[in-house]
Amino acid sequence: MTAQTHVPSLFSRAGAVSALTLAAVGGSLLVPGAASEAQAVPHAATALKVAASKKGSPYKYGASGPRRFDCSGLTVYSYKKAGKKLPRTAQQQYNKTRHVSASSRKKGDLVFFHYGSSVYHVGIYAGKGKIWHSPKRGSVVRLERIWSRSVWYGRVR
């Protein structure tokens, strides 16, 4: 049995246990329903940094860098710099990633916007409900809050 399995019994006997007490006994504090925004694996962290470094780069349909990007072009470019190859379109990228729940998302995961079963946009998760992306014609690469509930998450393997 792990320390985490003892946490509920500590709560039931003591009524409340501080995070400091849990840390002292080697336990961990889990908040039900809280989204995990743990640090990304190394290639995902690198891809996230690359995307952020492209802040202000203009959108251009079909472009995948180094100066202009469409949404999937930014993810292809960022992950290529991190040593990972992604297919070209947002839908193909979704099909290639390991799908994860919102509560399991991590920085560097891909965020796929969909309508029904069709993916139409992709960005890179930056934590705290925000993504780096290249939104549309006339705009630039930017950090923006996720604006829709119709999103799926994918982890690049």
Molecular structure report:
Helix content is 31%, strand content 20%. α3 (42-53) crosses α4. Residues 1-36 have low confidence and may be disordered. With 157 residues, the chain is an alpha+beta fold. The relative contact order is 0.18. The two termini are 30 Å apart. It has helices spanning 3-14, 19-24, 42-53, 71-81, 90-96, and strands spanning 98-100, 110-115, 118-127, 130-133, 142-145, 151-155. It contains 5 helices and 6 strands, in the order αααααββββββ. The longest helix is centred in the N-terminal third of the chain and has 12 residues, at 3-14. A 6-stranded antiparallel β-sheet has the order 1-6-2-3-4-5.
Q: Estimate the mean pLDDT confidence.
A: 83
Unreliable residue stretches: 1-36
Principal-axis shape equals globular
Radius of gyration: 19 Å
Question: What oligomeric state do these chains adopt?
Answer: single chain
Structural class: alpha+beta
Identify the strand order in the major beta sheet: 1-6-2-3-4-5
User: What is the percentage of strand-forming residues?
Assistant: 15-25%
Secondary structure: elements and pairs:
Layout: H1 3-14, H2 19-24, H3 42-53, H4 71-81, H5 90-96, E1 98-100, E2 110-115, E3 118-127, E4 130-133, E5 142-145, E6 151-155
Antiparallel strand pairs: 1-6, 2-3, 2-6, 3-4, 4-5
Helix pairs in contact: 3-4
Entry summary:
This protein has 157 residues and is α+β, with helices and mostly antiparallel strands.
Key phrases:
single chain, 157 residues, alpha+beta, six-stranded antiparallel beta sheet, 20% strand, globular, disordered N terminus
